[in-house]
Each structure stands twice: as structure tokens, then as C-alpha cells.
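Support case: user asked for a sample of complex input and structure output to validate their parser. Sending the pair below.
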Amino acid sequence: MSKIERAEVFVASPGRNFVTLRLTTSDGVTGLGDATLNGRELAVASYLRDHVVPLLVDRDPANIEDIWQYLYRGAYWRRGPVTMTAVAAVDTALWDIKGKVAGLPVYQLLGGRSRDGVLVYSHASGTDTASLLDDVARFRDLGYKAIRAQAAVPDAGASYGVRKGTVYEPAAHSLPDEQPWSTEAYLDFAPTYLEAVRDRFGFGFHLLHDVHHRLTPIEAARFGKRVEDCRLFWMEDPTPAENQEAFRLIRQHTTTPVAVGETLSSIWDVQHLITEQLIDYVRTTVVHAGGITHLRRIFDLAALYQVRTGSHGATDLSPVTLAAAVHVDTAVPNFGIQEYMPHVAETMEVFRSEVRFEDGMLHAGDEPGLGVEYDEKAAERFPYEPRYLPVARRLDGSVHDW
Ligand SMILES: [Mg+2]
């Protein structure tokens, strides 16, 4: 019997912080798992090093489901982003190993190919409507068939999703950046730039928008209704997701499709959203929702209720997660869309990946396993840097949802 012989946790910052788990079996097969939780990276690294690694050594790496159950139920303390990210890292690495042992790409182990490629959306942004329109044009020229549009709200500080320079990276060094927020200004302005995008470019591509948890349910209902003529692919995270019942109110008022779930970590966190058909797309990811094993369980539940997938895929997830996501997306019947931001060059010096972008889609490649390698020597050149995501404050100084 093959055994897990070694479990190593790497923390490095090639462009941004990533936590990576590498398992090595007694047969010399390695598997990679992403354990990155943006702004709380070391909590997951400690969870793995101090509490999980001692449980893995000498286990049979073939028993993915049993190891998942052992780590989830065996801890007694369940769910939550730190726990589920740690479990995900182990699970993802075990699928990578199983693929390599079988000589098959992971999507084959999940039932094989359901589609030729994985539709992705990119992030266009602007400091005003004119620069947003230029950015949308640029992404259309790059071949994207789906584009998320965000522009800075005038007089409301730094709005969500607006890039400064060539790279979007909200996590700041040292203490969190504090950014002012005005819901009133956003509700007045955001529909105008979404309409401007449709006026300029028409309806021949998918248009998405991320509200980023900043509205109350009735505000979100008003927003969704206001932009119905823009025919959005989705409005994302219209209201904080931990209150699943809030989405019923939004649903009663608008036909704009709703996507939610990037901060949610288990099937229990999306149960009512899915079974009561309060959303159209579930955005849970491999890395924050317990790995391929648990994400597949969420997606299968979603399929029963005509809810499609739309996994989070910003660059705060490592290329290991992106590859795992593309394998899952390739296989599941109810795939919707995959978020995609290309990683910076420093990241790709450390992670070599088979995932390829072509004509608006991602392709997983046919290497056995996930098709990603980790260069720990290259990673040594990029030590961990403490970073925090921003905090939003209303104009009266009180804390708002970022
Ligand atoms: Mg988002």
C-alpha cells in the first residue's frame, strides 16, 4: 500500500501571498493543494502544520473520501473558512496524486469532459465611465466573451474592483487601507456605466457586475430592477451572504440573475440559497469550500435546482486552485462560468501550470493530475509579506461591508 510519507506547507509571496501544501507518497508521487485565505494566510498554514500534517502521515492517499470525512468530522469543530481551506488543500493534493497514479487528468476522474472549454469572465474597470469603456474594448479585443464591469463612484473614495495601473491587488501591506463608501452615490452611478457599456458595445457578449456585499436586500432589489434592461449575466454578492433569507426579498423584485458564494465554505452555507432557488449561480470555490470532493457535492445539489456554477477565481487563489477549478468546470453538467484573472509573472515563476487561455475559454490540459508544479527554490526568493484586505467606512465613519 502506498502511504503519505511527507506533508510540507510552503508560504511565499510571488506577487502576492500563497500557502501551498505538497504531499509526497511512499512511491514518490507528489500532489499539490492551495491553502490560501487572503489576509489570513498564516492561520491556515498553522492549522495545517500544527494540526493536520501529523494526521496525514502513513495514511493511504487513495482514500480521498475517508480522509475528507476524518478531517471534517474528526476535528469536532466544523465549517468556517480556515478549517475548510485547510481541508481543501489536503483534498486537492489527494486528487492530484490520484490523477498522477492513474495517468489521467483530474477531469477524467470526475466523469470526463462535458464541454470543450471553460467560459471565463475577465475584470474591466475604470476610474470613470470613459476609461471603463476603453478597458471593456481592450478585453473584447483579447477575445473575452464575458466581462465584469466596475467603475469608481465619484466622490465615494475607492470603489470595489477598480484597478490602479496594470494589476488589481486590493490587499495592502501593513495595516488595512480604509476606504470611504456611499451607497447612495453608488446606486445613482453604477447603473449609468453599465448602460453606457451596453450602448457602446451592444449585447453580443456577457456583462457581469460585482456589488461586493454592499447593499441591503431592498437596495439590491432596487438595483437589480434598475439594470434589468442591461441584461446582466449576473449581479454578484448583492448583499452579505451569511443571511440566506435576504435573497428571497431580492428575488421577489427583480429578474436580474444573482450570483453568490465566494465567502461561503460549506454546503450548509448555500443549502437554502440553492434549494429555495434564491440564486442562479453558486460561487463557492475549490480552495475555500473543502476541496474538489465537497465542491462537487455542492454543485450536484445545485444541479437539482437549475443553479449553475460560477466559481470565484481572482488572483488571491493560486494557480493550483485555478487548475483544480478548470478540471471541475470541464466535468460538471451544470457549469455556468469561471472567474479568471491571469496571475502575474512572479507567480508563474513559482507555479508552472498546464492551464491555457484561448478564445475566451480556459483549457485544463491533459497532464496526469492537475498539471501544476511548484518550484520551491524559486519560491524562496519571495518571502511572506503581511497584507490585509481593505476596510470600508460609510461617510459618517461607521464600518461598512467591504
Ligand atoms: Mg466577487
